[in-house]
Amino acid sequence: MTQHSPDAGNPGRRSIGALAVVTGSSSGIGAAIARRLLHDGWNVVGLDRAPPSIQAPGFDANQVDVTEAREVTACLSTLHDVKALVHAAGFMRVAPLGSLTAADGMSMWRLHVEAAETLANAVAPKLPNGGRIVLIGSRTASGAHGRSQYAATKAALVGMARSWAIELAPRGITVNVVAPAATDTPMLQDPARGNVAPRVPPIGRLVTAGEVAALTAFILSDEAAAITGQQLVICGGSSL
Length: 240
Fold this sequence. Notes:
By secondary structure, the chain is an alpha/beta fold. The chain contains five helices and seven strands, in the order E-H-E-E-H-E-H-E-H-E-H-E. The chain has helices spanning 28-39, 69-76, 102-123, 148-168, 209-219; strands spanning 19-23, 43-48, 59-63, 82-87, 132-136, 174-180, 231-234. Residues 1-12 have low confidence and may be disordered.
């Protein structure tokens, strides 16, 4: 893994030479965020169990199971000058009451919630004043038919983010949840979804991963320094 230098260029633009850690960077929303940040001038360290899908200057791919705390902390201990953490890794298992399994619930909890806790616990003490943490949640956090276990994990992210935002506000570090509705990613094709089809928002199409990435990039910017402890929903009108 390469070592990254501190910010260079115009100090008014956080993205120039800054380092972001992005989980789930091999596919879907995580990959879109990594590509957007690279485009904006960030250096990106990607953490994903799958092989990398991005090969670009400024990108370091690390095959890491983010549900394994030892792997995560070992990887993060080699990084210096991290300015932002984005936890985008995730998956969905669906089932109605009467068919829920503890294994599915625990698997989602470990990836969505416990991994976020491990990552933030390792990164936050080393973030500079003005650092950023973004957790990718879901509009489903407010509840959805057949998605109770998934919704519970995404709702937990909101509670953690708000708690961390209070703790870190004195250092100017913001913590937010970006919560999209159904997004056009490979996760929608996962056979584990069974017959639970995504709900197309009132705008008549799914949210795109690029739209989620664009909002995330803004939240990581200096211009978003006053936004913290929020769940920012991208719903295409689904909440109306």
